[in-house]
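Notebook, bench 3.
Goal today: get a predicted structure for Flagellar P-ring protein from Pararhodobacter marinus so we can plan the truncation constructs. The sequence was checked against the plasmid map this morning, with no discrepancies at the termini. Length recorded as 366 residues. Pasting the sequence as submitted so the record is complete.
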Amino acid sequence: MRIALWLGLFLALACHTASAQIRLKDLVEFDGVRGNDLIGYGLVVGLDGTGDGLRNAPFTEDIMTNILERLGVNVTGEQFRPRNVAAVLVTATLPAFARTGSRIDVTVSAIGDANSLFGGTLVMTPLNGADGQIYAVAQGAVIAGGVAARGDAAQVVEGVPTSGTIPGGARVEREVDFQLASLSRVRLALRQADFTTALHIERAINAHFGQAVAAMQDAGTVVLDIAATRAPTAAHALSRIENLPIAPGTRARVVIDQRSGTIVMGEDVRISRVAVAQGGLTLRVDETPQAIQPNPFSPGETVVVPRTNAQIAPEPGIGLAELQGGTSLAQVVAGLNALGVGPRDMIDILNTINAAGALHADLVVH
């Protein structure tokens, strides 16, 4: 019954999304309009005894020494043993067209043996790009993503207290050199390559401008001629097409999550006519140890003799059931539900049907 409800829900969602049209901006990436990953190495201070143990994390002592010396404090030869500091890696994404002075969010993650970053403050940390240049500087109070409590004999942890975020915690100091206005042609890269979707995008753009301004290069690329659109700049041309409704074409796909037992099917999934038999074995082991004692007044000692009763019994299973060839998702769902098995067994059945060559869809297993 549970699998029937799940598959019925997926059927309703698939039918709804198949008839809906998606905005162009949600299907493609515009060439050059992209973010850039940043990373930095810094120090979180102000922790309530939950920081790094400097004996196990000597790099924390090194960065703390460097920061203090830059501030004019001579700590040469000093021994540090604080528990209120932690070495962290700081990561962020520099958005496209981010300008100097704008703020971006950062993520802070402990790399030593700190127990929690709750209540800490990240001190000034440069963030570098892949080219080694500094593009932003991060600083601010860390919002930890969990909580931890510890006693003498036990501890409890909820969430991930060794990782946190700083909303707007980094200020952009350098801009990425990219001149969108100078482009004469812009490539539209499909997030999921598909010839049908690329053709629909080409036709929709050309119909919008009333002339051939877009051309499909392959399943993942459509090229837009900015000059042919007669728009002042590439930004003007992209603003005119990014909200065009597109009916995307998708591959038939079955996605299985083995950990949760979740099965998701696309609308175009088809199954050829097959016969399926499903069953299993039940293993039962009973332990009934027996104590054997010596006779009265006789030498010897009591001995525990193990007694094990092991049995293997086949489960009745579903027998041999026939699945008619499905010409629609509704018929596929009805045929699978007719087997009357649970989600875990349904996953095994789908894997076996795919191995037999009767499942006409991409099978993705997580």
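Confidence is low (pLDDT under 50) at residues 1-19. The longest helix spans residues 2-19.
Flagging this for group meeting.
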